[in-house]
């Protein structure tokens, strides 16, 4: 692993800000799962990170906290639990990868929607299709003479 986790071109978090805990994972797996601490719990203090304070503008930091609010604890800590493989190091890599993805997505701003109008031909095609459909349905009704 490198010394820092790259989030974007402008943001890289040093690994010393990431807190890794390893615990025994539950579920199937027999004796190995009961003895080996392969489950990874990654904690990252998004609200109090000195790196994010220095590398992000205040506007971006507030936006990130807002976007991730449903995933953060009351203290502003993001916790990820990974127990996908029997290997502690693989689970650790998966946890770091997920952290990168979550923070990238949190910082990404959606594109503004440009308002457009349907063309006259599109509108006419829609009305014609409605008319045809109505005629099909009218043709199915019983005619009382």
What does the model show?
- With 145 residues, the protein is α+β, with helices and mostly antiparallel strands.
- The protein has one domain: Double Stranded RNA Binding Domain (2-Layer Sandwich), CATH 3.30.160.
- Helices cover 43% and strands 17% of the residues.
- It contains five helices and five strands, in the order βββαβααβαα.
- The protein has helices at residues 31-35, 50-55, 58-67, 88-107, 120-140, and strands at residues 4-6, 12-14, 18-23, 39-45, 77-82.
- The strands form two sheets. Strands 3-4-5 form a three-stranded antiparallel beta sheet, with helices on one face. A two-stranded antiparallel sheet has the order 1-2.
- Strand 1 (4-6) and strand 2 (12-14) form a beta hairpin.
- The longest helix is centred in the C-terminal third of the chain and has 21 residues, at 120-140.
- The protein is elongated and about 80 Å long.
- The N and C termini lie far apart (84 Å).
- The model has no long low-confidence stretch (mean pLDDT 89).
